[in-house]
Write a structure and sequence with these properties.
elongated; about 75% helix
Length: about 90
């Protein structure tokens, strides 16, 4: 999964945990899974947010782990989106 996919999965799981139909045990397990996905999304975002400061081998590894392309196009896309928001 990519960082954004982890984030979206965390949101989906949080929504499911709020469902009034569920049992308390199921809700707790769903919340734990949401926390794991949110943590993984944060790790990917943090690593990619400091992309330029990472050693070359770490950059390549984080790009692969986050599901981004090695040519950096995903990071250029992220930068473009940041500029649109600012």
């Amino acid at each position: 999964m990519t960082g954004p996919q982890h984030y979206l999965t965390a949101e989906r799981l949080l929504s499911a945990a709020r469902s009034p139909k569920g049992r308390a045990e199921d809700e707790a397990a769903t919340l734990r899974a949401a926390k794991v996905h949110a943590t993984l999304a944060l790790a990917a975002a943090t690593a990619l947010g400091r992309y330029e400061q990472l050693p070359a081998a770490d950059r390549k590894a984080w790009l692969a782990a986050a599901g981004a392309s090695a040519d950096g196009s995903a990071l250029r896309e992220i930068d473009a989106q940041r500029k649109e928001v600012a």
